[in-house]
């Protein structure tokens, strides 16, 4: 069964001089429930745009995006927002924690947009999620008092707190040192697996990409499988040049 | 339901987290609402003071003054006949407040010698009609009319001339003339210019000394009331003037003139005053609102990334709009509550009677006007809504993908 399916997705933008800039071209991608997929690519290769489209933050110029087999192109903005909150969890490179809110408040923030019991029990759920990522003792700390690794663990807890079916991670280890990055990535993979959520990771780090069951390379807006050692090497050199 | 709770919770959370910024942005609104509410409340009190001041002189709206005299001789009608006709008239038309008043001079034996003093001889109901509020003692009452010692209400200068500091010693004064009598001072009013002595004497004091102290009884000042005052509904004033002239004229065979003596245009003047005060308050409030709007605009631009993150949580455009809007509304509403509270404390503790009414107690001291408090709260909330509108629109129109920047 396919959870997400991109079929011939293209995205282009109109430039002020009247020309058209293609960003993504003919992207085909499927993601199954619980699957771990990684995408590597240069800066400007269209990775962010692809993630935006997957997370219903952006719409493609052409092609079809199916979510649970249903096309998403005719969804109203309100429905897209609700689906985004219910289906997806986001992990950002720069953590994007809400400043001056405690860890537990940050984790509870997505539940402000939930309904019923999930909304009413949000603080308790958030505390439990922080426990799961090993930060139960730091629930009342504001982000400014947390290390980078701790902040990203808070972000992971926040991404998982609504039990999403897909976690979209943009360079989740990009702002961390190698050792901390490995720990955070292991935690992310483990937590999503425990939740039964699919994980789509965009990364420059081949060791991070290697954790995924399926790996892709995005270059000049085109997506291709990343399976050969040579290709991995090219991706590694991409990171050093980024 | 949880959507509304969530929006409120989000807005309150934002206010709580950014206390310093919110407080700074609200200083203007607080001051504006405080000023508007206080000025409105004070305006109403000033209006009350002005109204009472005017009514002390000319009577309450509408006061009809009635004069009767024989057109041939110019003399007033017989006192007893006049009293009977007036009693019959007021009873027939259900006029509950009627007062008699006559002006003249009396002779008073004061420590510095016998002195002529301007004396107004009135019926007890004159006090109600003219809002007489003694600063010491009391105004006349019906029982004073039968007192063997005529009751007097004097001004402070009179009391000073008598050489007594207050009424604790139950001061008396001898009314001079052919048949002197000792009168009792029952109250002190704050009236007269400078050292001018003023005395009120209740009419129809019992006993043969009714005219005691009169400078010239031939003037008939105290022989019978030549002026009658009637307190009627303002919308009936014209009709009453017509009827009283006709009925009393026919009953007594004299000419009766009636005219309205209270300041009938005062309501319009006070309405203009209130309007001017309100206008000034609104201007101040708009200025305060501009401060909130300014800080709101700056803040929302700084929070674009946060708004983008919230969109990634599933926040709809409507939710973002209402959260930013409610944040502004919650904050200004709180400022409004604080401002109205401060205004109430201030207005209730100001020595208003001393500042505005020469120390004379107000007959109807108005409480803090509820309308002013409600207006203050509504205005604060409205300013919050208006000042939150533009930032909320900006927040909604922010491009999420630019805000988040994967």
UniProtKB/TrEMBL annotation, chain A:
GO terms for cellular component: plasma membrane. The keyword Kinase does not apply. It comes from the Bacteria. Residues 4-239 form the ABC transporter domain. Keywords: ATP-binding, Nucleotide-binding, Transport. Coiled coil: none annotated. Transmembrane segments: none annotated. CDD domains: ABC_MJ0796_LolCDE_FtsE. One of its GO terms (molecular function) is ATP hydrolysis activity. This is Putative ABC transport system ATP-binding protein. It comes from Blastococcus saxobsidens.
TrEMBL record, chain B:
The keyword Metal-binding does not apply. Residues 23-195 form the MacB-like periplasmic core domain. The chain crosses the membrane at residues 22-46, 275-300, 320-347, 367-396. Keywords: Cell membrane, Membrane, Transmembrane, Transmembrane helix. It is found in: Cell membrane. It comes from the Bacteria. InterPro entries: ABC3_permease_C, MacB_PCD, Macrolide_Exporter_MacB. GO terms for cellular component: plasma membrane. The keyword Protein biosynthesis does not apply. Pfam families: FtsX (PF02687), MacB_PCD (PF12704). Residues 281-397 form the ABC3 transporter permease C-terminal domain. GO terms for molecular function: transmembrane transporter activity. It is a multi-pass membrane protein. PANTHER family: ABC TRANSPORTER PERMEASE YTRF (PTHR30572:SF4), MEMBRANE COMPONENT OF TRANSPORTER-RELATED (PTHR30572). Belongs to the ABC-4 integral membrane protein family. This is Putative ABC transport system permease protein.
